[in-house]
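yo

u said u wanted the structure for the complex thing, so here. seqs first:
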Amino acid sequence: MSGQWGKKVKYSIFGESHGRGIGITIDGLPPGIKLDMDFINGEMQRRAPGRDEFSTKRFEGDKVEILSGYFNGYTTGTPLCGVIFNENQNSKDYDKLKNLARPGHADFTGKVKYSGFNDYRGGGHFSGRITAPLVFAGAVAKQILFDKGIVIGSHILSIGNVFDNYFDGVNLKIQTLADVLRKDFPVLDDLKGKEMKNIILKAKEETDSVGGIIEGSILNLPCGLGEPFFDSLESNLAQLLFSVPAVKGVEFGMGFEITKIRGSKANDVPYISEEKVLTKTNNNGGINGGISNGMPVIFRVAMKPTPSIAKTQNTIDMATGENSEISVIGRHDPCIVLRALPVIEACAAMSILDFI
Amino acid sequence: MSGQWGKKVKYSIFGESHGRGIGITIDGLPPGIKLDMDFINGEMQRRAPGRDEFSTKRFEGDKVEILSGYFNGYTTGTPLCGVIFNENQNSKDYDKLKNLARPGHADFTGKVKYSGFNDYRGGGHFSGRITAPLVFAGAVAKQILFDKGIVIGSHILSIGNVFDNYFDGVNLKIQTLADVLRKDFPVLDDLKGKEMKNIILKAKEETDSVGGIIEGSILNLPCGLGEPFFDSLESNLAQLLFSVPAVKGVEFGMGFEITKIRGSKANDVPYISEEKVLTKTNNNGGINGGISNGMPVIFRVAMKPTPSIAKTQNTIDMATGENSEISVIGRHDPCIVLRALPVIEACAAMSILDFI
Amino acid sequence: MSGQWGKKVKYSIFGESHGRGIGITIDGLPPGIKLDMDFINGEMQRRAPGRDEFSTKRFEGDKVEILSGYFNGYTTGTPLCGVIFNENQNSKDYDKLKNLARPGHADFTGKVKYSGFNDYRGGGHFSGRITAPLVFAGAVAKQILFDKGIVIGSHILSIGNVFDNYFDGVNLKIQTLADVLRKDFPVLDDLKGKEMKNIILKAKEETDSVGGIIEGSILNLPCGLGEPFFDSLESNLAQLLFSVPAVKGVEFGMGFEITKIRGSKANDVPYISEEKVLTKTNNNGGINGGISNGMPVIFRVAMKPTPSIAKTQNTIDMATGENSEISVIGRHDPCIVLRALPVIEACAAMSILDFI
Amino acid sequence: MSGQWGKKVKYSIFGESHGRGIGITIDGLPPGIKLDMDFINGEMQRRAPGRDEFSTKRFEGDKVEILSGYFNGYTTGTPLCGVIFNENQNSKDYDKLKNLARPGHADFTGKVKYSGFNDYRGGGHFSGRITAPLVFAGAVAKQILFDKGIVIGSHILSIGNVFDNYFDGVNLKIQTLADVLRKDFPVLDDLKGKEMKNIILKAKEETDSVGGIIEGSILNLPCGLGEPFFDSLESNLAQLLFSVPAVKGVEFGMGFEITKIRGSKANDVPYISEEKVLTKTNNNGGINGGISNGMPVIFRVAMKPTPSIAKTQNTIDMATGENSEISVIGRHDPCIVLRALPVIEACAAMSILDFI
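structre next:
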């Protein structure tokens, strides 16, 4: 029962990494939206591996075929199902590993949960590949939001110990998001970006991996979105963000750092300027009482280092019940943070679309 | 549409701080559970103010009256509604502030969202008081889980810049949770606890406030709970945690720190011991691929400093549209972290009960 | 998990006939609705027994107390909880029957489902009394719909074998609904009404009961409400109607009779008149493809005769597992159809409000 | 937002009659079910047209391709998506009708609802063709239920004015259901069946159509399934049944006829026989208080005559806003009742699976 989410617009995701196809059904889109297929394909490209010198060389062929809900270039308003048919999946890579639990992965938990019947190839339904349909749905959502003036963007805040500058939560402009989006390595400070790339290369050489933090932002959100308690903006968005494999932390505004300062400093003081209500600071990340206040929504997502590494690791053999060793030979990303940017943005878009 | 949550057990929360009553309906409890009213009242007491030298002196009278779903000492299996009737609410405290937006609160966002019709007194439906019914529901859930051997506990990890020791994610024992629960100020290292209390007192004297981090744990969770993607254990629990007012960050296992180390270090290596599968480390907080692996689930919640402070702050007058000042005279908690422990635990209990 | 329903506006119902209180939480109402308490009380009165010479003499005291979501005469937009505290419940009436399954009731099925822990008094959570909170919620919904020009009304179509005239599905006017609402015995043809009353009286004298059919209507529904498949207008409304105890059949338009005629006769031919699209006939009851077409929505609900009768009946003793006899001495309605009119209308109102 | 349904097992349906594909995602199936593809194909065949002398000659090619959730012959427990790719769709048949509203169809309501963007070809998302994925999902559900001893079956109760015998609600045996399933024209009394076929042929010759009633049954349901109020067995099943195009009425047990008899006659008297609780009659259709009592569940569904007929009918031109005429030339079924049997059974299976 994991594949469904949403209230106004409902999503149903499906697929295994090595099954026939992965996809998502989007139910509740308004009719008459002229889908910008170039934009959607561009978002899929941001996620696909093989574009840069870090990622795996495998080509995943992320072409989405729309089976329904789309006619003559416009959404019909009926459920829209987009499918990515799997090609170029080298299933043999995974045969030998069938009974060995790859540390950090869901091999063991998945085997227990599904009584051994899960498709283990490439991580099956747990594979990061299943984020591809998410990006597709997010692209559609982003387009609809953009038409309403709402813009979503992100950058790599950190890789390992190297940190980029933070977004300016008070003055963040759409132009900044557009500029960083255009870069191959989306950071604000390119020098820091260079350091980050070195860290990734080093990890790759050492058959290891690194993680990082993504900082996201939503601009021009109207005031008043979100509900107190169970459907606060943070609750809704965090639920989606934590759905993404490898996410281990989510924070808004100052996040965990806000716990270290006084209330008098933390409170964002409101003032009126040109008939708009703004706040002098934005430590709350644009959200008060679970509801948007019109200031930029700022959030951060912690992504752990890729679990699949070629380095030999101890593990267990789930068939024999004995301790063993594993070396995940094959095609690995030393760092998925770059590819995760459109996935994180997709979550933000889906979340906001559920409130608008 | 904020008040409903849950799949197997469904909750519906209602109430304003100064309305007739606040409460929650719990729908889907198994029949025949002998509710331990002493335990439930104890949990309500942990949350209530006025117990220690820091909190506000106001007495909130958190006696829960059960209107349905409970007969002859046992749950009936039909919807159980628990209500706390409001007494001792000094509404006059809030009259003068009606049009002034208290910084850090939802006064402005709430007014926009509800077109000015929200009950503003004491924060209305946004009040931290509405966490009382949550604690009640959590107490019922905890009792049911405890009967299955699952134990939930927490401690104050930090207040301001002072940090307690962290839970040992590999070896955490129930006894540790029981010990810390018994303390008036639940920390592992009492010397640190003393420092923290000083920080709170100082803030109180300066009519200011401080925040902190709560670390929670769930022990003896069976392996296999949670679903990949939209209903992962992290997604489900984070959605509830972010529903609690003042929460600005949630992380699992090493959380944000995991982004700074290599994959070879981050991966929790599984091994078999006495026919159980354990991991040598627990950086993932007991969750892989959104599914519990049997190790302790460890998570952390960032709570911002209480927004209500007597210090004068700038703000806006929502009626006139002009800048103004506000001093929230009245009864304030300089720090709500201590009182939030049972609320955070309640979220964890409700979340797990939805999977068992 | 029975108590929750709704998408845009979510309801959560609770209560046992002899518990402390029965009620409903309504989550998602727009803020700023000035509740017409006279109207709401009037609807509660239509449902309450003791008003006419047929019904039971017990007085149920259906005064709704609003605990939240309502401030200074207006809805706040936050969850609104209405509770009816139980008084005047003679629990002793039911003690002797504790182990005897009253035929036609849910005594046996409820005991199995709830492992014997259900509150059996007066039918507990299965009692028709729990329709009182439904009427309250329906009254609120009706008021909101009325402000949008949408009117809901009904009449008793039949009692036993005596049938009133049917609503004119093409020309039905609001005035007709208003006229029939004003009557003590809401039928179109008062002579038929007199026959019906005789049937009810005779059943009462013979310590037996009768059932009947209610015909309902929704006027001025905009075209386009409802969704194909799982959330068609018929699906949505039928789900609510079948929630009402004693309902055993639901039909729309010609209903079961439409199966006996040809397609050329059944099809409602559309035509344009004064820029509105109308149909010459209305055999489909105002709904095509699950979506409203602007014509009056006409539906019918079959209510079985009241199961509780003083006549001695065979049954089983659920404690001993032996066959036995039962005579349900006490206060019984020989016919609940009259009292069910506002309940049926409430379902219609709640259903439409979920689409508007 | 029409495509999603279910609580324990969640379904998401999509597709337009002339789009690329129609399908359904089933989320929540237990892992390890060995799908019987022969059985599933058999169910698809029961629904497909072209098998007998009445139906349309078009061949719809209902081969389901499973894209996910199915591995090595077993369900994986992850979301299972089945797609039927559209072939042999003669879109030209519908071009001329683009602006003419076919009476009885959703052309007009769909155009209004979807602002003219809906795929109008062949009825688009409103097409009866979309019941094919429902039959697939129902087949999977039936298989799971059958393994638990629960059997679902149906027969044509009536076509036009000709009625078959009714199911014996007290003594109905699995063998009866098996026997009727084997027939090309599933009725209990073959002589009546012959009369029915004549009625259909006559309608076909006169380019008209007829409707009928389907009677369904669920045997060996455990006692205790269903919830009082919003999720009663009747509510749940009726919601699905009314999702099927052309359904205009649903009743349980005696249905509308129960309104004509006395309570003393309507009540099903329970008695104990061989340690099982049975009832002497079964006027309530196996359901008391919304909960199954162990007796056969009996229900009936009214299906209106097929709206698409070649006979010329008056209508409106939705583009010009003028009255017009239409003759739906092409391939029409004079009666869809026979083909609807597996669809109705699918609804029953999906409903029960949601409770088990």
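The longest helix of chain B spans residues 337-353. Chain B touches chain D through three residues (CB under 8 Å).
cya
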